[in-house]
Amino acid sequence: MGGLRELAASFVAPGPCGVAVRDRLKPLTPLDERVLRAVGAHQGTLASRDLKTRCADGLEHGAQTWAARKRDLTKESSSRIAGAITKATHDQWALARRCQAAHIQKLEAGIRTLRHRLSLPLGAPGTKRAAGGYRSKNEWFRKSRRLAALEARHTAAVADWQAGRVRVVRGGKRLLNTRQHLAEAGLTEDEWRERWEAERWFLAADGESGKRFGNETIRVTPDGEVSIRLPAPLAHLANARHGRYTLTAHIAFAHRGAEWADRIEANRAVAYRIHLDTERGRWYLTATWQRPVVQTIPLETARARGMVGVDTNADHFAAYLLDRHGNPKGGPHRFGYDLSGTAGHRDAQIRHALTRLINWAVRVGVAAIGIEDLDFTAEKTREKHGRRKRFRQLISGMPTGKLKARLVSMAAEQGLSVVAVDPAYTSLWGAQHWQKPLTTPRRKMSRHDAAGIAIGRRALGHPVRRRTAPPPHDRSDRAGHRTAQAAPGNRRREGTRPPTTDRPPGGPSPSGKRKREPSASNTVRDAPSTQQWVQDSLMCTG
Asked: To the nearest whole number, what is the mean pLDDT of the chain?
């Protein structure tokens, strides 16, 4: 392909397999809050101790050590609570292990880049595939120091990986480091302490199929009554039978409430988590459950009614509607968002933009949305982009993984599928083949709008360019049709477009407007000749 990398095949992204809904617990009495804090702190202590034991086991973990840990936790809580704690511990350890492997791969990529550039002469030009040499001796020296630092980090990370050591912070490493920078974070020591303790609480319970209302530890009745099975040391706080505490607050899930009610009435598993938002001073209950794996539709079915191609950018989605042959319809659509501010603000902006995008896709009648399968994990390092700090900040701020997962989940609720395509060259080829032809005095096309067309065409299985090279005029039946999207079975694919004056002489045009008929020329030179020319055979001799 002339030095171009091979493009990955497009595929239909699998649908969501889980659901999470949340509602506020209100009103809560002071006694309710004291009980929730006591239960959360007690079970959080057990979870911290269990995580420490699991990390100490390392690669020596097995079924016997798991059973021993669960037996120790059961004495101070209950069998179900012990099972939930050990499961959460294993999930956290496994996540830390995956992050450790990704960190090692990132260090190896940086070391390879630095070694390559340090081996080149100063000022050596780079290529499209690899960067060139450093520009000065000072830069070469500083990069050699950084290479030594990365190699030391890599050695330590590999040693931890081989020994099975992971470093996990219950409550979050970022919040832990904030303790040393309270002034910059705008927090007092008491505010930080409250947030730290709330993050380390454990108020969660796994669902159980066949049990009453889908959960025995945290139970929610159809009318919204919430009760908690207290651990053994806190059984004296119970206000109901069987060591349970019933809260005065009631919940009513506004979103997916009917689906949640159907599950608990059928005694199907539903997991719950209670947590405190310290900034607002509010308690919330989150319900989660699994769904049967949604069967993805075939790719050809997703392409049957056209496609909406979406180009993801730092501040907006650039979308374009295409028919099933890959032809753009209408004009570009842009759905903006703002990724500055807090994580909650960014998430709300993404959800709002995706909602508008999906509603528009439903109105135009397509069955799928085409989007790039972006992953900047290996593309945002200092060694890869050097001094392009703003570009690194740009791609680091784009929530590509969360965005695709949220888009798949929200689109599935509207009956839409998501087709993921290879992101290579979409902006380059889109601008080359589509930006200028579609630009008019009343329609401004940006590079991002053209990239949306390229993504949509790739999702439909068509090449990005508008037309292929025409076949020889005398061998079109053997060379094939010149357009890339018209199949051999399409009728009149070789025909020309009908003229705008295709109407009876003197009659109205198809648009209803009368058009001027062609008139005969007034000059002798342009007038058609009626003389029959006959070639003299004598002129061809000699």
From this structure: 83
